[in-house]
Specification:
Distance between the termini: 29 Å
Number of domains: 1
Oligomer: single chain
Bound molecules: iron/sulfur cluster
Number of helices: 10
CATH topology: Uracil-DNA Glycosylase, subunit E
Strand order of the largest sheet: 2-1-5-6
Low-confidence stretches: none
Strand content: 5-15%
CATH class: Alpha Beta
Shape: globular
Order of helices and strands: HEHHHEEEHEHHHEHH
């Protein structure tokens, strides 16, 4: 039987499991409520999210909300969206940008937290690490996202990361905003209805 969120959240907020690897220390960033019908499965918080204590309160979040077709109020309503990154603390930066989510976080938390979200009917997997884990196979982001119709049929929509760094990826694939975004907005509206 799944452990309730009410029991998991105090433990999660206090988690320091991989803190020796975290340059700014442990600060899990998430938004979880058992009523949420939509799960946003992201990568890991960046430095801004770490400092604000809030996910997607930046340019990536603005683009993501535009893709979803929702206001900030709806996006940050935990009864609408659960936000659960693959790694919940800022992992630091390397030469190519932010480091990957800490793998310890998936092992320690992911299954238990997903099991405590019984009302999720639509999962939006965002970016390489979330795509690989939720789709159960490793493949380039473009290949994963190209399979969006099959994913959506089972309530799992693969998305690229909305970061401004991905502008070129989006420009090279106009089908994403022409076909996937309208389908995404319909699916979100249906899940929230
Ligand atoms: S990244 Fe995850 S496992 Fe590591 S300290 Fe943060 S919440 Fe705990």
């Amino acid at each position: 039987m799944a452990t309730s969120l009410a029991r998991l959240l105090p433990e999660l907020r206090a988690c320091t499991h991989c803190e020796p690897h975290l340059p700014l220390g442990a600060r899990p960033i998430f938004q979880l409520d058992r009523r949420a019908p939509i799960l946003l499965a992201g990568q890991a918080p960046g430095r801004v999210a770490h400092e604000k204590g809030r996910p997607f309160d930046d340019a990536s979040g603005e683009r993501l909300r535009a893709w979803l077709g929702v206001s900030r109020e709806t996006f940050y309503d935990p009864a609408c969206f659960a936000i659960l990154p693959m790694g919940m603390c800022f992992p630091g930066t390397g030469a190519g940008g932010d480091l990957p989510p800490r793998p310890e976080c998936v092992a320690r938390w992911r299954r238990r937290l997903l099991d405590a979200l019984p009302r999720v009917t639509l999962t939006l997997a965002i970016g390489q690490y979330a795509l690989d884990w939720h789709l159960g196979r490793k493949a380039p982001v473009a290949e994963q996202v190209a399979g969006w119709r099959e994913g959506l049929a089972r309530g799992l929509l693969p998305l690229p990361h909305p970061s401004p760094r991905n502008q070129r990826w989006l420009k090279d694939r106009p089908w994403f905003e022409a076909e996937v975004v309208p389908a995404l907005q319909r699916a979100v509206a249906d899940a929230l209805a």
